[in-house]
Amino acid sequence: MGESALIGYTRLDGSLLACGGVTSIILTLLAMSQVNLYYRDRQRELTQKEAEWLSIRKVKTYQLN
């Protein structure tokens, strides 16, 4: 495998992976699934924060009434 066949991938932690062919495809799919999991977790965190904020707001509204 020559240097022209090497493809570099930067992981989320900043380290560089180099490989070619099928391995690069597998690594690309792995990286994409990791990114999807990260964003899904972030969305879940935001949803929980929104729910907490709404419940706090409801309590304040009940206290005012």
UniProtKB/TrEMBL annotation:
The source's domain of life comes to Bacteria
User: Looking at the keywords, is Transmembrane helix present?
Assistant: yes
Report keywords, A-Z: Membrane, Transmembrane, Transmembrane helix
Annotated membrane-spanning segments are: 15-39
User: What's the protein name?
Assistant: Uncharacterized protein
